[in-house]
Amino acid sequence: MNLLRFITAGNVDDGKSTLIGRLLFDSNAISTDILQTLSSQSKVKGVDTDIDLALLTDGLRAEREQGITIDVAYKYFSTPKRKFIIADTPGHSQYTRNMFTGASNADLAILLLDVRHGITDQTKRHSIISSILNIQNIVVCINKMDLEGYSEAIFEQIKTEFTKFALPLGFRHISFIPVSALEGDNVVQQSKNMPWYKDETLLSLLENIDTSQPESLQASRFQVQYVIRPQTNDFPDYRGFAGKVFSGTYSVGDRVKVLPSGTETTLASIEINQQQVSSADAGQPVVFQLADKIDVGRGNTIVPLNQLPRVETEFTATLCWMDNNPLLPGQKLLLQQNSFLTKALIKEILHKIDIHTFNKSASDGTLNLNDICTVSIKTALPLCFDPYLQNRHTGAFILINEQTKNTVAAGVIL
Question: Residue 113: is its pLDDT beyond 90?
Answer without folding.
Answer: yes
